[in-house]
Amino acid sequence: MSDLLCYGSICADLYIWLPHWPQPGSGLHALNSRWVAGGNALNEARALVSLGAQPLLYGDRLGYDPAGDLIAAELTTLGLMTHIERRADVATPVCHILITPDGERTIIALRRQTAATPPQPDQLAMSQIVSVSRYGLHTADVALLARRLNRFVVAGDVAEPTDPLAQAADVIVTSADLLGADPLHQATVLQHVRGAPIFLTAGSQPARVLVSGKWYEVTPASSVVTNTTGAGDVFRAGVVYGIWQGWDWETILAFATRVATAFVASRHDETA
């Protein structure tokens, strides 16, 4: 079995690039569109594969539909299809992602008739690090089970100390946007739950990690930003990889920031 296990959303993403945000009642010509395999767990696992790791991937079931075909083909290429079920009685999750020229995006998720296959206890017990994001089905259950099995839990997109993911996490990776008006204070509140280091992303602003009450920060290299979708998942993959390698928290922060920045920079020509 793999040392690393990713669990969460697996879906087909339809990227739609817009010249500007539409006004109510008006029409708009899109600049481009493209289907890709996505979802937080798949994005993270794919990034880990690119770093040389071989994670296990669990999450949404795939239907026998065009979206399922798209995802299954990519997962097979990546070597991640082993634990993903396909069923005739489910529909593959789909997200329509509207992207404006500033790189920001709005996600519209379609989840009718979707279902997921969480890992069994023996599968969790054989993994060293279990990474779970808030988005997806049964994510809290998987994180809490991994905690009971004494696995190292990395929790993504946590915002509140009452979130079960905060109760399970050995490390939290989240974004300033999720933490409200005072993200540094809210991160401190999250750390008080279990003492977990808190990684905090903020787009082009410095990325930070809070360890034992002390902040460390790294400023991302400047780049042209046209699509930030999945950047947080790639950052989380960098954190998981660094923990797996046994690096210190500052080194992990710098590495995760670098791989996420490179990921965003690589997408600058997607609207062509």
Query: Strand content of the residues, in percent?
Result: 25-35%
Strand order of the largest sheet: 9-4-1-10-11-12-13-14-15
The 3D shape can be described as globular
Largest β-sheet summary: 9 strands, mixed
Structure characterization notes:
The chain has 272 residues and is an alpha/beta fold. It has one domain: UDP-N-acetylmuramoyl-L-alanine:D-glutamate ligase. It is built from 8 helices and 15 strands. A 9-stranded mixed beta sheet has the order 9-4-1-10-11-12-13-14-15, sandwiched between helices. Helix 1 packs across helix 7 and helix 7 packs antiparallel against helix 8. It is globular and about 50 Å long. The protein starts with a strand and ends in a 7-residue tail after the last helix. The relative contact order is 0.15. The mean pLDDT is 95.
Set out the fold topology.
Blueprint: E1 4-8, E2 11-17, E3 32-38, H1 40-50, E4 56-60, E5 62-63, H2 66-78, E6 86-87, E7 94-99, E8 105-110, E9 116-117, H3 121-125, E10 129-133, H4 139-148, E11 152-156, H5 164-168, E12 171-175, H6 183-194, E13 198-201, E14 207-211, E15 214-218, H7 231-245, H8 249-265
Parallel strand pairs: 1-4, 1-10, 2-7, 5-6, 10-11, 11-12, 12-13
Antiparallel strand pairs: 2-3, 4-9, 7-8, 13-14, 14-15
Helix pairs in contact: 1-7, 7-8
